[in-house]
């Protein structure tokens, strides 16, 4: 089966959704390694519990971003992945890293891109009194949170939502759409073209599918 490497920094609830999809034959591949830059990331335990190779690669042990990303490339390539999945990997990637895996790296982001790139997306959506919010799966390019969007899930923000309720609602949707996008990619249906993304050969709109 196609090989999947997942990068995480924290809880790994999206990783768990990918593991669960795999166990129901809905991932289209096998998660062969989970790598975390935070050695205490709870997602590493989720990986071990699922019998997946769990690797802690603490960024604090490297003197520069370039050195860290070089080490990360080595660990990833040892596992010969078909796709690299960023599931809450909270690091800015060097151009060299992005170029190495361009076109086979997917990220989940907690907003309806291109709105709210970067951090604190839920607080910013609330501050703006946004009526709609959600999450996006996109191909990773050198532009932070700026690569072509593949799939989005949208939800209504209600008057009594706060950061916590909104985060929970968004993450519930993340867990639904991320495994689907990974499966489409591994089935060869999704492609990065250099300018955008295609699904079954058709150019996707800038905000992907919904
Ligand atoms: C997810 O909500 C994901 O969208 C977000 O981190 C969370 C990780 O949760 N990613 C980013 O903000 C990327 N900049 P998880 O560890 O439980 O999957």
UniProtKB/TrEMBL annotation:
Pfam families: Formyl_trans_N. One of its GO terms (molecular function) is phosphoribosylglycinamide formyltransferase activity. Belongs to the GART family. Gene3D superfamilies: Formyl transferase, N-terminal domain (3.40.50.170). CDD domains: FMT_core_GART (cd08645). This is Phosphoribosylglycinamide formyltransferase. Transmembrane segments: none annotated. The active site is at residue 109.
């Amino acid at each position: 089966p196609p090989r999947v490497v997942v990068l995480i920094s924290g809880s790994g609830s999206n990783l768990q959704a990918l593991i669960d999809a795999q166990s129901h034959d809905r991932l289209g591949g096998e998660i062969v390694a989970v790598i975390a830059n935070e050695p205490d990331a709870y997602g590493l335990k989720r990986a071990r519990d699922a019998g997946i190779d769990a690797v802690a690669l603490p960024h604090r042990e490297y003197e520069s971003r370039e050195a860290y990303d070089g080490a990360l490339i080595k660990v990833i390539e040892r596992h010969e992945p078909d796709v690299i999945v960023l599931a809450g990997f909270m690091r800015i990637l060097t151009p060299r890293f992005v170029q190495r895996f361009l076109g086979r790296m997917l990220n989940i982001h907690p907003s309806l891109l291109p709105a709210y790139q970067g951090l604190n997306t839920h607080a910013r959506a609330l501050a703006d009194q946004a009526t709609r919010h959600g999450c996006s799966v996109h191909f990773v390019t050198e532009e932070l949170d700026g690569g072509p969007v593949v799939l989005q899930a949208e939800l209504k923000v209600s008057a009594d939502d706060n950061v916590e309720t909104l985060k929970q609602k968004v993450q519930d949707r993340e867990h639904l759409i991320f495994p689907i996008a990974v499966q489409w990619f591994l089935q060869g249906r999704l492609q990065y073209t250099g300018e955008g993304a295609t699904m079954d050969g058709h150019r996707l709109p800038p905000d992907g599918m919904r």
